[in-house]
Amino acid sequence: MVRLSLNGFLAYKNAEVCIDTEDKPRLLIKVYEELLKKLDIAAKAAEEKDFKKKVEELSKAISVLEILDSSLDMSYGEIPRNLSILYTYILKNLRFAQRSPKKDKIEECKGLLSSILEGFRKAYEVKKEGENRAPDQVEYRIVK
């Protein structure tokens, strides 16, 4: 029995190391991609009138969004505050969608999350481009 516990602990420890060394912005993008897959499955389940599956998938999506919302660092100002407001709105709609036979709220939330994901992807690309440039090739722009 102790051996199983030790193996479980080692598996957990190895998973933790994988996450710590992962490219964190890329990890966030993966989370959003998986979140959108859950919403796709929920929307399809709503179409097929498989309400149990729809509620299960929406529950998973809600849990992920709650974690994303609680992990925002509000000391960064307006962006995390606005994201939190958006997450709250999406959470409200997904909870409503759990009780509704329609999929319109799910589709609305997918659209909002897709927009956020696209913004994160663009920011990630810009960051990667900046890391790949030599210091004398970096452009500086003054924005008014």
SSE inventory with pairings:
Blueprint (H helix, E strand, L loop, with lengths): L1 H20 L2 H24 L3 H20 L7 H22 L4 H29 L12
Précis, in short:
The chain is mainly alpha-helical and 144 residues long. It contains 5 helices and no strands.
How would you explain this protein's 3D organization?
The protein is an all-alpha fold and about 140 residues long. It has a domain of about 90 residues: Four Helix Bundle (Hemerythrin (Met), subunit A). It contains five helices and no strands. Helix 2 packs antiparallel against helix 3, helix 3 runs antiparallel to helix 4 and helix 4 packs antiparallel against helix 5. It is elongated and about 50 Å long. The termini are far apart.
Keywords for this entry:
Four Helix Bundle (Hemerythrin (Met), subunit A), 5 helices, single chain, mainly alpha, 144 residues, disordered N terminus, elongated
Q: Can you tell me the CATH class of one domain?
A: Mainly Alpha
Order of helices and strands: HHHHH
- Indicate the low-confidence ranges by residue numbers: 1-5
Shape label = elongated
Strand element count:
0
Sheet-strand content, in percent, reads: under 5%
Number of helices: 5
The main sheet comes to: none
Distance between the termini: 65 Å
What is the average of the pLDDT values? 85
